[in-house]
Write a structure and sequence with these properties.
The strands form 6 sheets. The chain has a 5-stranded parallel sheet, with helices on one face. It has a 5-stranded parallel sheet with strand order 9-16-10-11-12. By secondary structure, it is of the alpha/beta class.
Length: 497
């Protein structure tokens, strides 16, 4: 039993009170705690059934450890880049990688305690059960078996998260493969690293390790960040390659096997049409590296639930199918977070958990919406987006117009002598309404929220272009991008005119 449970009398999983709660939450991560806190604030008796380290993926092995390591390597990189300013020379070196990893873990431990363990005592009507095994439905309504104890809650909310998955590459089971968790625990830097997968985790960790001095190769079947705008994918590829990262896009994997260097990937070059059909355009080639990092996606944790016994329908990716109220096909069972197989962001997990709790207790009055959901990829420059891409807007029947500026038109980045990146806006030609924003900028994650508000307010490009923005800020780039629909910004004076 975890320490946090030892602090609470109500953590006795065998008590009558705790086996018949108003709400049983399966999962002790971000979504689960959001459910529990929301339900508790409504006066409900809640049991959280967690497995493994309390807090789930984000604080323990995901967002927190990866972002602090990314920032650490940014400090190293940017010190070395100080020479872009005349008369300045900067240096930085990693002299004790093990100490950097230890500091990362210390931060994880501190935040887990502050945001999860220490939170529980504030809610006396919440009990935490530290499961030795996984919870599973018995087939008797909402009855759940947890370590041999049968729970009979009024409502169940599933928040079991997701796990990394191995792609179907011949031989991949025969080689030691790192995932994002084990990669961030390495106490010794490898000489070289092969990254399979060009999605969010692949590009973030690939760049981080490259800045630590590791020879990194990123391979992916399509392009980097395939859900991003093509212009952003290509620009990011260029920036990574400028830092020494080898990027292999359009790669077909034939086999992977141990080698004298560590691992060897045999692959072929593909030409893909965007609809999933790929043709081989180049003969086999091999890529070797000391270590292999697989970042080819995540799968919802539903396998051990015996969901079929509770009449819970699953999606093709294994996620729990939910309606707009976070309700599963069983009306007494809800789900939130990564286990739904969609919108795998910690803030969406917390949002979904809150709605699931409210709907389970109060009736289905709160609809889930990802219409204005921002997404940030913590590369450098950062990729940030909200709303529709150009292709998505066209697919929805919009008469689309777009604008795009590179950061050498934005004074803030000119002054910083760092003009890596671009801003692309998508709008409807007939109504002038903004539909989406796509940003590649050193502080793109800080800029995108302004566009979230603009989309929520259903602003037009003209309204955005006429909005007052502070000079020499990154967010001023949005105003310039909006002006680009109708003007040549290179002919404007300062302050975006």
């Amino acid at each position: 039993m975890s320490d946090c449970c030892k602090k609470k009398e109500s953590c006795d999983s065998g008590s009558e009170e705790n086996t018949k709660p108003d709400v049983l939450v399966i999962g002790g991560g971000s979504a689960g705690f959001s459910v529990a806190i929301t339900a508790a604030e409504s006066g409900a008796n809640v049991v959280i059934a967690g497995h493994g380290t309390i807090g789930g993926t984000c604080v323990n092995v995901g967002c927190v450890p990866s972002k602090t390591m990314i920032r650490a390597m940014e400090a190293v990189h940017h010190a070395k880049e100080a020479g872009r300013f005349d008369g300045i020379k900067g240096t930085a070196e990693i002299f004790n990688w093990k100490a950097t990893i230890a500091q990362k873990q210390s931060l994880v431990d501190e935040l887990r305690k502050a945001k999860y363990e220490d939170v529980l005592p504030s809610y006396p009507n919440v009990s935490y059960v530290d499961m030795k095994n996984k919870a599973s439905f018995t087939g008797n309504g909402t009855e759940v078996d947890i370590d041999g104890v049968l729970y009979h809650p009024k409502k169940v909310i599933i928040a079991t998260g997701s796990s990394s998955t191995l792609p179907p590459i011949n031989g991949i089971q025969s080689v030691p493969a790192l995932d994002s968790t084990s990669a961030l625990e390495l106490e010794t830097l490898p000489e070289s690293l092969l990254v399979i997968g060009g999605g969010v985790i692949g590009v973030e960790l690939g760049q981080m390790f490259a800045r630590a001095g590791v020879k990194v190769t990123i391979c992916c079947r399509s392009r980097l960040l395939p859900e991003a705008e093509p212009e952003i994918s290509e620009a990011l590829k260029t920036h990574l390659e400028a830092e020494g990262v080898t990027v292999c896009t359009g790669v077909g994997y034939q086999k992977i096997e141990p080698s004298a260097e560590g691992v060897k990937l045999t692959c072929e070059s593909l030409n893909c049409d965007g609809a999933g059909h790929c043709d081989t355009i180049a003969a086999d080639k091999t890529i070797t590296a000391e270590k292999l990092l697989v970042t080819a996606g995540r799968k919802p944790n539903t396998a051990s639930l015996d969901a079929d016994k509770a009449r819970i329908k699953l999606l093709k990716n294994g996620g729990i199918e939910t309606n707009e109220f976070m309700q599963s096909s069983n009306p007494d069972i809800y789900a939130a977070g990564d286990v739904t197989g969609t919108d795998m962001f910690v803030y969406m997990a917390a949002y979904g958990g809150k709605l699931a709790a409210k709907n389970a207790l109060e009736g289905n009055n709160h609809k889930y919406s990802n219409e204005n959901m921002p997404a940030v990829v913590f590369t450098d420059p950062q990729m940030a987006m909200v709303g529709l891409t150009e292709s998505e807007a066209k697919a929805k029947g919009h008469d689309v117009k777009t604008s795009m500026i590179t950061l050498d038109h934005v004074p803030r980045y000119i002054a910083a002598r760092d003009t890596r990146g671009l801003i692309k806006l998508v709008a409807d030609r007939k109504t002038d309404k903004l539909l989406g924003a796509h940003i590649l900028a050193p502080d793109g994650g800080e800029i995108v929220q302004t566009m979230v508000l603009a989309l929520k307010a259903r602003m037009t490009t003209e309204e955005l272009a006429n909005t007052i923005f502070p000079y020499l800020t990154g967010v001023e780039g949005l105003k310039l991008a909006a002006q680009t629909f109708d003007k040549d910004v290179s002919k404007l004076s300062c302050c975006a005119g």
